User: Fold these one by one.
Assistant:
Number 1:
Amino acid sequence: MRIEHLLSRDLIQNRALRVLVIGAGGTGSAIVMGLPYLDQAMRVWGHRYGLAVALMDADQVSETNCVRQPFSVSDIGQNKATVLINRINLFWGTSWLAAPNQFHARSFERDYDRCPDLVIGCVDTRAARRVIESSFSRALTRASYWLDLGNNAASGQYVLGQPLNARNPRKAERLRTVSELYPEIVDESGGEDPLPSCSVAEALEHQEPFINQTLAASALAMLAQLFRYGKIAHHGAFFNAKTGQMCALPVDPALWRKAKRRTKLEHSKK
C-alpha cells in the first residue's frame, strides 16, 4: 500500500539543514549548482536558516570535464569542489564549504556537530557507494537521509532513503535506501563500469548529454516538495533518455518487501 513519507520538523526548525554532496562530477556539479535555488526557496517558505552545504571531491578538473561539466579551460588543474564552491559563494553570497579530499568512512568521526543531515552521493563506482553506506553506522550515525544518484550511458536513477543508524530506528515506514532496495549497486564483486574516457569525443560517445542534469533537477524537485510541504509520495525515480520516460519510485512498503524477496531469491540461485 502506498503511503506518504513525513519530514521530521525538528530537522529544519532552529538551524540550517546540513548537506554533504559527495562527488563534483557530472551529477554532483549539477546538484550543487541547483542547491542555491532550493536554499532561497526554503527561506521564502519560512525555513529562515536555509541550507549549509559542503562539497567533497578530491579530483582535479581535466580537459574532458569541460564538455559535460560546468568547468572551463581556465579551471583545468584546479580542484573541482573548490572551483564550484568558490563560484557559488561569489555569486550567491553564501559561505558554503569545499572539501578537496576523498570521502572515507571516518571523515566526520571526530566532529559529530558537523555530521550532515542529508548526504547526497554522486559517485560512479560500487566501491564508493559501499564506503558511503558503511559510514552511516560510524561517522554519519546522525545523518537523516541518503540521496543517491547514478547513471550509465543512457539511463539513470535517484533514490532517497533513511539509513539505519542512531537517527533512523528500524520501522516499517522508514524510507529504504538504494543499497537496501538494490544491493547490487554496492556489490564490488560485480565489477565496475569502464574507466572515464580520456578524450572529449569518447566522453560524448559513452554518455548521452543532459542525463546528469535531468536526474539532478528531478531529485532537487523531490527535495523541494519534501521541505515545502513536509511530505512526499515518492522517494526516487528512474529515467531513460532514449525513450524519454521517467518512472517514479513510490513510498510503498509492499514494494520494498517485494524488492527484498527478489534479492533473497537471486542470492539463493548463486
Number 2:
Amino acid sequence: MSSAPRDGAQQEAESASAILLAARELFHSPGYAATRVADIAHRAGVSRATVYNHFADKKSILYKLVRDYMAGYEQIAEWLKTSVDPKASIYELLGNMVREPMLWRIRNADLRPAIEMAKQLPTSGWREANEAADRAMHGWIADVHHASARLNITRPEVDIDFASGALYSMIEATLSTLSTAATVAEVDRITEQLTLLQWHAIYSIRPQDAPVAEDVLPVALMAPVASPAVLTAP
C-alpha cells in the first residue's frame, strides 16, 4: 500500500528542515565562511531556488539555527517549571536548573562555530535570544527562592532578588565556559558545586532538610507538559 501523498505545507516543512540540517553540518565543517548556498542545497538534496524560497541568504540560515538553539534554553526553563515532580526537593529543582542547560550545550556542541560567528554579527539576533534565555532560566530559579522565602527557610538578611541575580550570573559564566567535551560525571560535579553555593548563600537550612516541591511551590507550577526529549535543535 502506497503512503498518503504529502501536502504542500508538509513538503515545505521537510525541505526547510533538510536545509537547516545541511547548513548545520557544513557550518561545523568546513565552516561558515567556506560554505556556499549551493553547498547547502546539494547537501540537503534541494535546488538553490528552494533554499532561497525559505531563506534570504546564508546569514538568514545561520540566524535561524542560532535562534532555535537559544530558544532551547527557554524551553528547558519552561519544561522544568511546568513539570515539577511534587516529591522532588527544592534542592533537586535548583540542581536541575544548573544541569539541564549544561547538557543542552554539550548535546549541541557542533553548533559552537555557528554561534561564535553569530555573536560577531549585530543583526543575528543572538544578543536578544541570549537575553530571553537568561530571563527564562533566572526567572524560574528566582521563583523557587521567593517561594522558599515565604516558608521562612531562607536567610532573612539576604535580598532574594539581588542574591538570585548574582548567583545566576555565576551559573551563566560557568555555562558559557563549559567544555562541550565535558562528561556527564563532570557535569554532575559542577552541578553539585553550583547548587551548594546557591543553597548556602540563600538558605538557612541544610540541603538534606530541603522541603519537597509540593510543600513550597504553587500547584499551578506543577502541571505536566511534554518530556524534554522534544528539545532538539534542528
Number 3:
Amino acid sequence: MAMQSRSRSCTAAWTCASSTEPRDVSSTVRPATRRFRADKPVVFALCALPLAWLTLRAFGVAGLSLGPNPVEALLHGLGLWGLRLLLITLCVRPAAVMLRQPRLMRLRRMIGLYAFTYVALHFLTWLVLDRGLDWTGVVSDIAKRPYITVGFAAFVLLLPLAVTSTDRWMRRLGRRWHSLHRLAYVAALLGGLHFLWLVKADWREPALYIAAYLALMAWRWRAVRRA
C-alpha cells in the first residue's frame, strides 16, 4: 500500500508539474524568420531581362533600336522568348527529378507566368501594331494562315492556365487542375509549329525547339511508364 500511494503521489506530482510549469520550447518551435533564398528573385530578374532589352530598343534608349523593321523585330523577340520560357517551364520537373532538387519546382509557376506574359505581348503587338486592330483582317488571317491559326490556338490554350495558376484555383479545381495544366504541352507544340511555319528559309532554330520538345515528351512518357 505504501508503494502504491507513493507511486500515485509521484504520478500526480509529475502530471501537475508538466501541466502548470512553463517548458523550454525553444527546441521545438521553429524560428519566426525564414531563411532568405535568392533563387526566386534571380530567376525573376533573368526572365525580365529580355523584355527590358526589347523595351530599351523600342524607345531608342542610349542609341539602341529595333532595326529597319521595328514591329517585326518586336514581334519576333516577344514570341521567341515566350516559346523559350514555355519550354523551360516544362523542363523544370525533369530537371528537379534528375538533379534531385525538388526546390526547383518552386520556380515553375513564375517562369510559366512569364512565358504567358511574353506570348500575350506578342499577340497584342501583332493585333495592335501589325494589324492596326483591323478585326476583319485579324479574323481572316487566323482562319486562312496556318501559322497564325496554330499560334492563336496556343495563346488561347495558355489563357486558362494563367488564370488558374493561383493556389486558390488549385484548391478549387482539385485533381482537375493537373488535367487542365497539361494543356501547356499542347501549347508548346503549337508554338513550335507556329515558329517553324513562320520562317521562310532558316528552319534550324525552330527545329531545335521542336526537337527539345520531343525529347521532353519522351522523358515524360518513360516517367509515366515507370510509375
Number 4:
Amino acid sequence: MTITGLTIQEIATELDIPYRTAQKRLQRSGIQPITTGVLYPPEALEAVRNVPGKGRPPKKNDTYPETKPQTFEAREPVPLYIVKDKETGEDVSQVPLDANVIFLDEELVEIPEIGLTAAGSPIDFEDMDPDPPMRLWAAGFIRGDRKNYRCVRVQGSSMTEADIQDGDRALLVRARTAENGEIMLVRDEDSSTLKRIRITEGPDGRAEVWMCWEDGSGQKVRLNGGHQIQARLVAIERKPRKR
C-alpha cells in the first residue's frame, strides 16, 4: 500500500517558513501524522498556512563591540537532532511530536568535525586539518555555502540548562560578530567554549558583551580583546543513551 503525504520539511519549503515554525504550527493546528511522526496528510499544508504566527523578534544589530545594547528576546530552543543508535537499534520514531526533535526524513550532508569545546583545546574555525573526520547532518540545517559550517564535540556541563550535554555534537556556522541571545563558539588563548551571548549597557552607556554559563551558576565573563567569536550554534546532535 502506498501512503501519500508531506514531511515537515516539504511543508516548510512550500510555505517558505523555517522548519521549526512549520513544526510548531502543525502542533497548534491539531493535524495528526499519518505515519510515525513523519508524513502528514495533504490538508496539513493549508492548515499550517492558516495558523497565525507569534511574531518575530526585532532585527538584531550585529556590530561588535560598538553595537547598541539590545533587550534579549526569548528564542525557540536550538533543534535537537537525534540519531538512531546503530549498536542497539533503538527506535526514536516514537519521540513525542512536541519534543524538540528533528527527524531524519531528509537528505544528509557531510560536515567536518574540528575538535572539542574544552579547556586546553582551542579551536581555530579557519585552520582545519586537510583530512578531517566527517559527520552527517540533515541538509535542511545548511543555508548557503556548506564551507561555512563545521561541527565540534561538546565537553563539559556549562550549558545544561540550554539542553547541551557532555558528549553532544554541535553544528556551527561561521560568525565574527556577537549576536545577542545566541549561543556562540568563543575562543581565547587556550580554550574554546559554547556560551550564550548577552549584550548589555555598561555604566558609561557603551555596550558590554558577555558570555554566560547556563548551568545554574549564573557565571558570566565579559568579552575583551583576548576573546574571538568564531561561530554561531545551529543545531545539536545527540546519540540516544543506552538503556
